[in-house]
Amino acid sequence: MRRARAAAGTAAFLVLVPGTVAGLVPWWLTGWRSGAAYPPPVRAIGIVLVAAGAAVLLHAFARFVVEGLGTPAPIAPTERLVVGGLYHYVRNPMYLAVLALITGQALLLARPGLLGYAALVAAAVVAFVHGYEEPTLARRHGTAYEQYRRSVAAWWPRPRRHR
Asked: In 3D, which of 105, 117, 100, 111 has the Cα closest to residue 37?
């Protein structure tokens, strides 16, 4: 029952938050219309970033359900600290995935304005992580989080795994 409730809450949060930030707002800004054509290699990079961002985002959300028995939403947090899967290599794969989605859309649609939007989202995310998320996780999970934080980089994935 807990896992089903976590899955429902996580799915709702996925649609509401990343769906808005990486889907609805870019649509409002562009109408999904392409700007001046970028060269095919740039557009191909955009496709790769969108596909990778979507895959990483779904993986990260699944970890919250399977491993954490909760949601990414602050009002329904996980019971356990999520450190498996891609979280072995980087502490914030979900945020990186959202930024990859937005950046990929900017390259695919040839809309540099989306790069500016991605920069604003990145600044907001970094402020949220440092001002709210990290202190909250430290209070909630204590030394387990501090050990995890010391061994896994926040923003740049490392090839070695957290143990």
From this structure: 111
Taking only the tens place, the pLDDT of each residue in 72-82 is 988 888 989 99
Contact criterion met (CB below 8 Å) for 64 and 13: no
Round to whole Å and give the CA distance between 103 and 98.
9
The two tokens of residue 44 are 């191909």
Q: 161 phi and psi, to 5 degrees?
A: -90, 150
> What does the block give as tokens for 1?
């029952």
Measured in whole angstroms, the distance separating CA 52 from the mean position of its chain's CA atoms is 11
In 3D, which of 144, 8, 16, 23 has the Cα closest to residue 71? 8
Please work out, in degrees rounded to the nearest 5, the angle formed at the alpha carbon of residue 146 by the alpha carbons of 81 and 85.
Answer: 40
Reported as a single tens digit per residue, the pLDDT across 95-131 is: 999 999 999 999 999 999 999 999 999 999 999 999 9
Q: Which amino acid is at 71?
A: T
Q: What is the pLDDT of residues 144-155, one digit of tens each?
A: 999 999 999 999
Joined tokens for residue 19: 């769906």
